[in-house]
Amino acid sequence: MLRVLQIVTYMGHGGLETMIMNYYRNIDRTKIQFDFLVHRKEKADYDDEILSLGGHIYHMPVLNPFSKAYFNALDDFFDDHKYDIVHSHLDCMSAYPLKIAQKHGVRVRIAHSHNKSQDKNLKYPIKLFSKHLIPKYATHLFSCGKEAGDWMFSGKAYTILNNAIDAEKYQYDYQMRNQVRDELEISKPDFVIGHVGRFNPQKNHSFLIDVFKSVHGKNRNSKLLLVGTGYGQNDIREKVNNLGLSDYVFFLGNRGDVNRILQAMDVFLFPSLYEGLPLSIVEAQAAGLPCIISNNVPPECKVTDLVKSLDLNLPVEEWSDVILEKQSAIRKNTIDDIKKSGFDVKQNVVKLEEFYLKSIEE
Fold first, then answer.
1. Which tens digit of pLDDT belongs to each residue from 308-318?
2. CB atoms within 10 A of CB 82
3. Strands (DSSP E) along the chain, which ranges?
4. What is the CA radius of gyration of the chain?
């Protein structure tokens, strides 16, 4: 059996982690098994499932390209564990574990781009420098979409691997919709806006709350569901409280049942500052939801006619008007559209299996 080492930050309920798990659940595990090298000590959401599927989880210190201890830990790991394939999902920072993997004779070293930019913080210059090192140590380059690949790999050839989902799992279900609304104590006539994403600057939650405030001023029966966690959550909670919206905004945390939560929504709102190719937009379309997204989200995610892009420079009132136009939208079955567009995991996993198996024969 071929064991492939997936290198990640941690295996929480984020977009790229969920994408990996979608492939892992559907791959032929009699031929290919995944192990995970993570950069956090704490237990993560998908850890138990990984172990149940036969994977191993190994822990590294937090990635620091200036830390000798970090590179020593990688050296020790690859001394003790032999792999033919490593697949890194650390975006700009993938060069560093791939460098050590190369040193230890790993033949196939994949760098996978999941974003078309990075947060403009103190680490940004380091990330820009680091991403230029990737082609030196990677043997293969993957990306979730064209914009993410062009940005990360600067003209080098790369392969697009779609952020695929188990489409039928998200198909609109009226009975499930009512069940989830009952669980959340949301009444049948309420107009429910939803968002799935980590609370970090990229997802633009502050703007999202401004938009919802405008919506709520025009429809007092509106509610907002926020799925996810992150270091910015406390600031958003404080903003919600200060705006007097606490009774109308639901912080649902990390959920293992996003497919169910989507059923309870009426509109999916996604005003990100930048993205690679967000899995959550594909999931929302699979659930038949109208999606209002920023024009910074790559157009490849528009796989149905349910998606409308808006400029973040438009007034909040214009965003809220577009959202309110969707109040009478009728949910439809979009599963065939998802499959035809190439975002169903059952189709994509065959391509990944073939790549892994053929790459070690070259």
1. 999 999 999 99
2. 11
3. 2-7, 32-38, 57-59, 85-88, 108-113, 140-143, 159-160, 191-196, 222-227, 249-253, 267-270, 291-294, 307-310
4. 21
